[in-house]
Amino acid sequence: MARREKESFAMASEAPAWPSIRSVTPEELDGAARTLAAAFEEYPWTRWSIPEDSYRDRLEQLQRLYLGHALEHGVILVEDDLHGVLALLPPQAPEPSSSLQEQIAARHGSRLEALAGAVTPPPPEAAWNLATLGVHPEWQGRGLGRALVEAALEHVSRVDGAAVALETSDERNVRLYEGAGFRVTSTSTLEGGPVVVSMLRSSSGRSG
After folding, report:
1. Residue 30: how many CB atoms within 10 A of its CB?
2. Phi and psi at residue 6, in whole multiples of 5°?
3. Distances from the Cα of 205 to the Cαs of 164, 179, 183, 208, in angstroms?
4. 20 to 30 A Cα–Cα from 196, which one of 7, 60, 173, 190?
5. Is the distance from CB of 40 to CB of 3 less than 8 angstroms?
């Protein structure tokens, strides 16, 4: 099942150093999910894909489910106090299990049919997936989002240097990702929903 609860953050143009970016621990997943839920409170994709009924609870539960999958199959980076969270999946990461997909579907409830019809171009098979990135609203604008992205790209560079793909529904994020070496590969307007921008950072790290 596709997942586009993507990026919700604001990067400062002059980012301060954040030396405390590290891998999450299993015990911190609940806290990380709360941070992402706060970050995505007004995010266009989540507002469209999650019912208004118990929206915040559904949003936090979805984040927790996806983080569990990312911890098992990928990398989750956090700021030391969990003010920011990033999940990164390698090219070989499997789709969520049938059981997990059922739990995800239950949280989307009445929006599931619309979500199932939301089709965007697939990323390159060999690309990593920057699956989610969120910074708590109280900590946005301080360069934490930028620091998390840079840490994720450094991780990919150490592993295999492959391309990194992502999707976002916030125009502000497009400009910021372009500054990190990503380029827009497609723009999809969903019926009755948000615009989804697909982006790719090449294996060389160049935007072109």
Report:
1. 13
2. -90, -120
3. 9, 11, 10, 9
4. 60
5. no
Q: Report residue 65: phi and psi, to 5°.
A: -65, -45
> What six digits make up the tokens of 131?
């699956």
Q: What digits encode the pLDDT tens for the residues 134-169?
A: 999 999 999 999 999 999 999 999 999 999 999 999
The DSSP bridge partners found for residue 79 are 21
Q: Cα dist. 40→56, 158, 190 in Å?
A: 9, 30, 19
Sole residue written with tokens 């007004």: 42
In angstroms, the CA 111 to CA 21 distance is 35
Q: Are 81 and 34 spatial neighbours (Cβ–Cβ below 8 Å)?
A: no
Output the CA torsion 32→121→46→30 (10° steps): -20
Can you tell me which residue has the tokens 């009445």? 110
The interaxial angle of helices 144-159 and 171-179, nearest 10 deg, is 50
Q: Helix 55-73 to helix 29-39 angle, to the nearest 10 degrees?
A: 130
